[in-house]
Automatic annotation (TrEMBL):
Protein location: Cytoplasm
Originating organism: hydrothermal vent metagenome
Protein name (record): Ribosome recycling factor
Annotated Ribosome recycling factor domain residues: 20-183
Phylogenetic classification of the source organism: unclassified sequences, metagenomes, ecological metagenomes
UniProt similarity note: Belongs to the RRF family.
């Protein structure tokens, strides 16, 4: 019973770490990556469709992303979706494909993105602590219902704290790595 709670807790905390990694991927660093446009949806015949499913998205160099739609008539819709996404650049449509030219980031922009990353990391920590709270409540309920002893309850809560500490350390590590990436010129 207690081991199931441990497994459940680890699984959910791992999901919080994965969500943080996905969030971090959407942040811009010194080098442009195609993940910046991952959250952009294009109106494809009335259905919001991810940009990478209506055309090819490639980073041609450190500051440029090229988007080639599979259907030429989507150029306008893609251009509109990029403008609405407000990712900090205007799309350049040449009739065949769209290019996004990202200017080099200023130190103010880098600091602003580090703040966003810090907020994302804090959200992940809060999620992990909420998972810890749920797990501890389940353990206390088992103790209250006399399914486990007080000693077993204390040991289980200590184990959940260890799991929590490990995951919070992973969040801190990911944040430090992302911060270094963002600040590197």
């Amino acid at each position: 019973m207690v081991n199931e709670i441990f497994e459940h807790t680890k699984e959910h905390m791992d999901k919080s770490i994965e969500a943080l990694k996905r969030d971090f991927a959407s942040l811009r660093t010194g080098k442009v990556t195609t993940s910046i446009v991952d959250n952009i949806k294009v109106d494809y015949y009335g259905t919001p469709t991810p940009l990478n499913q209506v055309g090819s998205v490639i980073a041609t160099d450190a500051t440029t992303i090229a988007i080639t739609p599979w259907e030429k008539n989507l150029l306008g819709d893609i251009e509109k979706a990029i403008q609405e996404a407000n990712i900090g650049v205007n799309p350049n449509n040449d009739g065949d494909f769209i290019k996004l030219f990202f200017p080099p980031m200023t130190s103010e922009q880098r600091q602003e993105i580090v703040k966003q990353a810090k907020a994302m990391a804090e959200n992940a920590r809060v999620a992990i602590r909420n998972i810890r709270k749920d797990a501890n409540n389940k353990i206390k309920k088992l103790e209250k219902e006399k399914e486990i002893s007080e000693d077993e309850s204390k040991k289980a809560q200590d184990e959940i704290q260890k799991i929590t500490d490990d995951h919070v350390a992973k969040v801190d590590e990911l944040f430090k790595s992302k911060e270094a990436d963002i600040l590197k010129v």
